[in-house]
Structures are given as C-alpha cells and as structure tokens.
Amino acid sequence: MNSPLVSTGGTIFIIIYLLSLIVIGLIGRYFRKEESMSDFYLAGRGMGMFVLFLTLYATQYSGNTLIGFAGKAYRNGFTALVTVTFMCSVIGAYFIFAPKLFRLSRKYSFITIGDFIQFRYKSTALTIIVSVLSIIALVNYIVTNLKAMGIIIESVTGGTVSFINGIILLSLIMVIYETLGGMRSVAWTDMIQGILLLVGVVFIFGLVQDNYGGVIASQIQYNRDFWNPPDWNEKRLWFSTIIILFAGISVYPHAIQRIYSAKSETTLKRSLQIMVFMPFVTTLFIIFVGIIGAVQFPDLSTKESEYITLLILSDLSEKVPSIAPILILFISAAIAAIMSTVDSALLAISSITTQDIYRRIRPQTNEKSLTYFGKVFSWVLISIAAVFAIYLPQTIWRLMEIKLELLCQIAPAILIGIHLKQLDKSIILSGLTVGTFIALLIILSNMFGLQVPSKPWGIHAGVWGLTANCIIIFILYQRKIRTKS
What we know:
single chain, mainly alpha, Sodium/glucose cotransporter, 2 domains, 22 helices, 0% strand, globular
C-alpha cells in the first residue's frame, strides 16, 4: 500500500491522541500517593470495576488480535473461528485462581507473580526461574506487538513514516508516560484505549458486513477447501491451541498484576464476568474481517497476509469515502490496543526484574531507589525489544505461540498450587524444569533446521512440555502422599 490510509487531518488527530497519552502520564504522576513499588506498579491497589474491566480488555486484546488473528484467518479460513473459543477459555482459567490469588495478594502485599511463588513455595530458585520465564515470554509479547505497531504506522502514512520509525516513535511515547505515572497512567490510558478498541471493532465489523457480507456465499463454490470442516489433524491443533491459551494467557504477569490492583474481590469478579462476552464482539469480528480479506485479496504471501486488516480498510476507504472518520477511529483503536498491551508488559517486566531479581541481590535498597531502577530498566528494555521487532522475521502469530509455549509451563505452579497445599517446591520445580526443557528442545530444534516439526503430531511444543510437566507433578505428588501414609 503506497497511499496513506487517512488524510492529513486524520494523521493530525492520531498524533494529538498519541501526545495526549503523555499528558495522562503527567496526571498519573500528579495523583501518585507515595514513591513506593505498590503505588507505582499497582496504582495503590484501588482500581474500580469500570477501570479494571477496560484495562483487562485493552491488555488482552492487542496487536495479536487486530493483526495476527486476522492474518491467521486469512491463511486458515473457516477453522480460525475456533479462536473465539480460545479466548473464552482464558476467562474460565481466571475464575479458577484469580479470586483466591486476590485475597492472598491483599493479605501479603504481593506486587509480582514472583511474590506469590516465593510465598507459596519458599524457594528462591523457583521464584527466579518463574521470573526469567515470565520475562522471556513478555519480551516476546512486546516484540509481537511492536511489529504490529510498525505495520500499522507504515500503512497509515503510506510509508512516509517507515516501519522502523513507527516502532521507535510509539515506543518512545509509551515509555515516557509509563515512567511518569506507572500503573496509574497505564490503567487510565487503557481505559481510553479499551473504549476506542471496542467501538472501533464494532463499527468496522458493521461496515465490512454491509459492504462485503454478500461476497462470501458467492465465492464458496470457487474455494471449497477454505470452508471445509477441520480434519483430525486440525482438531488436534485446535485442542492444543486451547490448552496453551488457557494455561498461558491466564498467567500473563501483567494480567496477574491487574488482579492485585482490584479495589475488591467483588470488583474483580464482576470485571471478569463482563470479559466473558468480549471474544464475541472482538475476536469474532476480527476473524470475520480476515476471512473476507481472503475472498477480496486472494493469493497473498504469509508476510502480506499480516496486512489484511489494513488492506480491507484501504479498499473500504476507496469505495466509501464518507467512512474516513470511522477509519481514523479504528486505526486509533488498533494503535491503542497495541500500546495498552506493550505498556502493560513493559511495566510487568520492570516490576519482576526489580522486585524478584534486583531486590534479592540488594535487599537493603529502599522503595524510592527500587522504583527508580525499574524506570531506568524500562527504557533499556524497550530499546532492546524495538531492535528485535525490527529484525526478527517470524509472523506475529508464530511469535505469540512461542511465548505461550514457554509461559504455560508456569501454570501448574499457580492454577494447581494455589489450591493444593501439599505440593512443595521440589515437585513444582521438577515438573517446570522437565516441561520447559521439552518445549525448548522442540522449538529450538525446529528453529535451527533439524528434522523436528514445530508441532509434533499437530500438537504445540508447549503442550508436550506441559503434559510432561503435569505428569511429573502427579507422579511425585502421589509418591509424597504414599510416603506420608
């Protein structure tokens, strides 16, 4: 796409919107209550239901949704609709552990995922391993969304702002407002971004349905394979994907920080109850856009298919010039969704590195110095992530899979460990070590060109690892029970 998606006026609107986020950062700094880790990383633990819901929503639905999911639907067709089920499963996972985790976080003042692990298992080694896995997964998460960000900015400006410069510009804005106001600024910007995202997705879906809805039926006969029901290999892949999303997304460190930040347990539960419906008005709509794109723009390469949402929007703007304001709204929503995800992940990595690693090395450091270290680390991290986003060749969807394949190895320590008191650190550490080793062995073997598929027998590397992880936990737990009896 060589021509800009929006007019000069639209570009100015988007720039003003982006700069306004820095103003919100300043306001967040003004409303800080103290120079402490809890205030900076958890907004003083006072998020009400409206803010908590919107920050959860804006964080969960990101560039992966708007760019990655649409691209996957373009490549896989009808079967991509199962992604809606994937996203619903995540909310089910939250209900397994979130209420109890919230109560513990209030009682013991947790700030990070590592705080719970240390409290529950009394193991510094386990805490550090979980922290390192979380950081690796979150860096990957930031990279996928920065790639989506560069794609959108380059397309919006018709190449005037390049892919690389788009990543650098938006990364700079994010790290500025996050440094200024911490979680408070992030939550307030998420609130605006969540509203933009929801309204933008609904409007664009309506426009796509109105302009292209009749195209699908007429084209089915020409591309029957695209609409065939899944075979057994695809069904295994579906089930595998549900598992890694259920186990991986539910333990996102930045999502867990939002659990800690809720004003009350009732606030948390009500926010999650509303979240149950969001896959049907976000994921489903974006999948529909990707499927429409496959009919309108056939035979795109894998890389080109990542742009399918923007290609549809460009085509719409040429057919219906009057939709320009809605187009600007959606583009703002897309940028907002990505930024809300990246800033959350960035804040989570900063808190994990500061609280779970740096603080253990220098336990005498005061709260103000720890917070300052976290801010400086955020600047270093976003710089490294931007470089990876520019040069890594993988698709957004594949990078997201790799992240979840590692992160889901942490799930048993939280989802099972929070309820089963007899699980000790040696059991969890054994399962986590074996599971991570197997997942990494498959991922790296495939990445370095060995004759190992990325999904042996149609099942993700992370699921093979998680299966081994859970089997080890089960065997060692039963042995412990038998020994005691």
